[in-house]
Predict the structure.
Amino acid sequence: MSDCIFCKIINKDIPSEVVYEDRELIAFKDISRLAPVHLLVIPKKHIKDLNGVAAEDEGLIGHLFGVVQKLATDYGVAESGYRVITNIGSDGGQVVPHLHFHLLGGQKLGSKLG
Ligand code: AMP
Ligand code: ZN
């Protein structure tokens, strides 16, 4: 989608600190870090949010969580623990309407989710 900031990152139209990339996915550092490790893992396919995930995306989402695991290991938080969050829509606090998973860790995260 041409006016989507994450599609622009995928297309390298705007810069980002890419930490992982393959044919289906890209992961990069969040520009506004909320924890020592704060990565965003996103499918290259433009899907608005979790509600837009279809049955045909099952393999893609499974693959994405495998990459989340790998990045958690690479960034040294797999054992200490980390959090994966996807915000959906207005009440969910979603700002960028391109499906993304926050990987947060590297410190004791707060318990407040709501
Ligand atoms: P959400 O509220 O779940 O939609 O989160 C969107 C996230 O994207 C926020 O944490 C932003 O800091 C992050 N973000 C927005 N623009 C960029 C960018 N150009 N590069 C990296 N992260 C970004
Ligand atoms: Zn997009």
About this structure: Strands lie at 18-21, 25-29, 37-43, 82-85, 101-105. Helices lie at 5-10, 58-74.
